[in-house]
Amino acid sequence: MPTAEAEAEWDAFEARLKFSTLLGSLSASVAAAQKAARFLMVNKHCGEDLFEVALEWLEKDDMNLRIKIWGIWEELSEMAMREQHVDYINRIRDNIQHFMDNICPPERPIAANIRIVRKGVERMHKLGLFSNTRAKELDEMLKHRTSSSQNPDLDAVEAAHKQDPGEEAHDMKHRWPNAFGDNKPSGAKRPTDKKQIEQRIEEDRERHKRLKESIWQIGNGEHEESDKMWEECSDIDEGDLMAAEDETSEMLGISIDELRRRFPAQTPVAAV
């Protein structure tokens, strides 16, 4: 359920503060990304200011936060395309490579992040945000970064999680001790600890759930069937009203005369 804060329209200064607060407390859930995207749509009159805030937060040295913000771009893409808000559509198109560079930087690519970004780009392409040519360019860019991924520990754990979900945790520790920080020499820097891996897996589950939901999401024509029935249905005549009167009297267990006496205002059929 959208909150009043997410649905309220603010002036540019207040909107920046509110949006910054949203990003500061952003979780990895689908609802959190949708809430932030709705805030952007409601306050689209100051979209340039809000984009600047998001770009500032993307520069922070927190990879998990960057991935969460990427979730906002996915949700915003869908909302902007649905409402045909050209300004946001163009901003996402113009900044997509910048977003990608922050989440999976060329000099330090992480395969798990690349997979998240690739799925997001595919989703945006299906929405019509990118042309086939542009989508192919972005995919080639991600493939190149995948080949130079520099986090084999995390990649190995995620591959095992995907291919053999029933494997015991202690077996995973024996096979990839570095990923969990076990058996590391003192003073050595751990590339990724267990908590980060678990958080990443949970965030991936949320994103997969969001992707599946978007496949079954009803588009703008959700009222087409009811509208068609309304248009094709004949006008209500006296026969329809009398039939309804009969059904009501039978349901209440009273005669039609008694029904008319009790509910004169609700009985438009003239007494015969």
UniProtKB/TrEMBL annotation:
Region of interest called Disordered, as start-end residue ranges on this chain:
168-197
Gene Ontology, cellular component aspect: CTDK-1 complex
Question: Tell me, what's a Pfam family for it?
Answer: CTK3_C
Record's protein name: CID domain-containing protein
An example GO biological process term is: positive regulation of transcription by RNA polymerase I
Domain CTD kinase subunit gamma Ctk3 C-terminal: residue ranges: 193-251
Report the InterPro entries cross-referenced here. Answer: Ctk3 (IPR042326), Ctk3_C (IPR024637), Ctk3_N (IPR024638)
Domain of life according to the entry: Eukaryota
Residue ranges of domain CTD kinase subunit gamma Ctk3 N-terminal in the record = 11-126
